[in-house]
Specification:
Number of strands: 6
Largest sheet: 6 strands, mixed
Distance between the termini: 13 Å
Radius of gyration: 14 Å
Number of domains: 1
Strand content: 35-45%
CATH architecture: Roll
Structural class: alpha+beta
CATH class: Alpha Beta
Helix content: 25-40%
Order of helices and strands: EHEHEEEHHEH
CATH topology: ph1033 like fold
Protein backbone atom coordinates (compact mmCIF):
# COMPACT_ATOMS: atom_id res chain seq x y z
CA UNK A 1 0.00 0.00 0.00
CA UNK A 2 1.12 3.53 -0.78
CA UNK A 3 -0.01 6.95 0.38
CA UNK A 4 -0.72 10.05 -1.66
CA UNK A 5 -2.04 13.60 -1.49
CA UNK A 6 -4.64 14.90 -3.95
CA UNK A 7 -5.23 18.64 -4.27
CA UNK A 8 -8.54 20.14 -5.23
CA UNK A 9 -9.89 23.66 -5.41
CA UNK A 10 -12.87 23.54 -3.04
CA UNK A 11 -14.89 25.77 -5.39
CA UNK A 12 -14.50 23.16 -8.13
CA UNK A 13 -14.62 19.90 -6.10
CA UNK A 14 -14.70 19.99 -2.30
CA UNK A 15 -14.52 17.41 0.45
CA UNK A 16 -18.28 17.86 0.90
CA UNK A 17 -18.78 17.11 -2.81
CA UNK A 18 -16.66 13.97 -2.44
CA UNK A 19 -18.62 12.80 0.61
CA UNK A 20 -21.96 13.36 -1.18
CA UNK A 21 -20.74 11.49 -4.26
CA UNK A 22 -19.09 8.76 -2.13
CA UNK A 23 -17.12 7.49 -5.15
CA UNK A 24 -15.87 9.70 -7.98
CA UNK A 25 -13.31 9.97 -10.74
CA UNK A 26 -10.17 11.94 -9.91
CA UNK A 27 -9.83 13.47 -13.34
CA UNK A 28 -8.71 16.67 -15.04
CA UNK A 29 -5.02 16.20 -14.19
CA UNK A 30 -2.91 17.65 -17.01
CA UNK A 31 0.60 17.68 -15.52
CA UNK A 32 2.86 14.78 -16.54
CA UNK A 33 4.45 14.30 -13.11
CA UNK A 34 1.02 14.29 -11.43
CA UNK A 35 -0.28 11.91 -14.13
CA UNK A 36 2.65 9.55 -13.48
CA UNK A 37 1.71 9.58 -9.80
CA UNK A 38 -1.88 8.64 -10.74
CA UNK A 39 -0.48 5.78 -12.85
CA UNK A 40 1.45 4.49 -9.82
CA UNK A 41 -1.65 4.31 -7.62
CA UNK A 42 -3.12 0.90 -6.80
CA UNK A 43 -6.45 -0.15 -5.40
CA UNK A 44 -6.34 0.09 -1.60
CA UNK A 45 -3.93 3.04 -1.55
CA UNK A 46 -5.04 5.96 0.62
CA UNK A 47 -4.86 9.66 -0.23
CA UNK A 48 -5.16 12.83 1.75
CA UNK A 49 -7.79 15.17 0.30
CA UNK A 50 -6.29 18.67 0.27
CA UNK A 51 -8.24 21.89 -0.23
CA UNK A 52 -6.02 24.26 -2.19
CA UNK A 53 -6.37 27.98 -3.03
CA UNK A 54 -7.53 29.91 0.06
CA UNK A 55 -7.88 27.03 2.54
CA UNK A 56 -4.57 25.19 2.01
CA UNK A 57 -5.29 22.31 4.35
CA UNK A 58 -5.80 18.55 4.44
CA UNK A 59 -9.43 17.89 5.24
CA UNK A 60 -10.09 14.19 4.59
CA UNK A 61 -8.97 10.77 3.42
CA UNK A 62 -10.03 8.93 0.28
CA UNK A 63 -9.21 5.42 -0.93
CA UNK A 64 -8.22 4.47 -4.47
CA UNK A 65 -10.88 1.98 -5.63
CA UNK A 66 -10.22 2.07 -9.38
CA UNK A 67 -6.80 2.19 -10.98
CA UNK A 68 -5.54 4.40 -13.78
CA UNK A 69 -7.66 4.54 -16.93
CA UNK A 70 -8.16 7.06 -19.75
CA UNK A 71 -9.75 10.37 -18.77
CA UNK A 72 -12.66 10.94 -21.16
CA UNK A 73 -12.41 14.72 -20.58
CA UNK A 74 -8.94 14.71 -22.21
CA UNK A 75 -9.40 15.02 -25.97
CA UNK A 76 -5.67 14.41 -26.55
CA UNK A 77 -5.85 10.95 -24.97
CA UNK A 78 -2.60 11.52 -23.07
CA UNK A 79 -3.99 11.75 -19.55
CA UNK A 80 -5.94 9.49 -17.25
CA UNK A 81 -7.75 9.29 -13.95
CA UNK A 82 -8.36 7.03 -10.96
CA UNK A 83 -11.52 6.29 -9.00
CA UNK A 84 -11.59 7.30 -5.33
CA UNK A 85 -14.09 6.96 -2.50
CA UNK A 86 -14.46 9.05 0.62
CA UNK A 87 -13.21 7.29 3.76
CA UNK A 88 -13.29 9.85 6.58
CA UNK A 89 -12.73 13.50 7.37
CA UNK A 90 -9.88 14.67 9.55
CA UNK A 91 -11.18 15.63 12.98
CA UNK A 92 -8.83 18.61 12.82
CA UNK A 93 -7.76 19.81 9.35
CA UNK A 94 -3.98 20.06 8.97
CA UNK A 95 -2.87 23.31 7.35
CA UNK A 96 0.02 23.98 5.01
CA UNK A 97 1.66 26.34 7.51
CA UNK A 98 1.68 23.58 10.12
CA UNK A 99 3.24 21.15 7.61
CA UNK A 100 5.89 23.69 6.53
CA UNK A 101 6.84 24.37 10.16
CA UNK A 102 7.13 20.70 11.12
CA UNK A 103 10.67 19.34 10.56
CA UNK A 104 9.19 15.85 10.14
CA UNK A 105 6.93 17.04 7.31
CA UNK A 106 8.64 19.93 5.54
CA UNK A 107 10.33 17.52 3.09
CA UNK A 108 7.00 16.70 1.42
CA UNK A 109 6.35 17.63 -2.21
CA UNK A 110 3.47 19.74 -0.89
CA UNK A 111 6.13 22.13 0.41
CA UNK A 112 8.78 21.69 -2.27
CA UNK A 113 6.54 21.52 -5.37
CA UNK A 114 3.58 23.64 -4.41
CA UNK A 115 1.87 23.47 -7.83
CA UNK A 116 1.90 19.68 -8.11
CA UNK A 117 -1.67 18.35 -7.71
CA UNK A 118 -0.98 14.63 -7.10
CA UNK A 119 1.98 13.61 -4.97
CA UNK A 120 3.33 10.74 -2.88
CA UNK A 121 3.40 10.82 0.91
CA UNK A 122 5.86 8.60 2.78
CA UNK A 123 4.68 6.27 5.56
CA UNK A 124 6.13 8.31 8.43
CA UNK A 125 4.57 11.54 7.14
CA UNK A 126 1.22 9.77 6.66
CA UNK A 127 1.26 8.58 10.27
CA UNK A 128 2.23 12.02 11.58
CA UNK A 129 -0.42 13.90 9.59
CA UNK A 130 -3.08 11.42 10.69
CA UNK A 131 -2.10 12.03 14.33
CA UNK A 132 -2.14 15.80 13.83
CA UNK A 133 -5.53 15.48 12.15
CA UNK A 134 -6.97 13.44 15.02
CA UNK A 135 -7.62 10.24 13.05
CA UNK A 136 -6.23 6.73 13.33
CA UNK A 137 -3.69 6.04 10.58
Amino acid sequence: MAYWLLKSEPGAWSWDDQVKAKTSNWDGVRNYQAANNLKAMRGGDFCFFYHSVNEKRIVGIVEVVGEYRPDPSDESGRFGMVLVKAVKPLATPVGLAEIKNDPKLNHLALVRQSRLSVMPVDDAAWQRICRLGGVAP
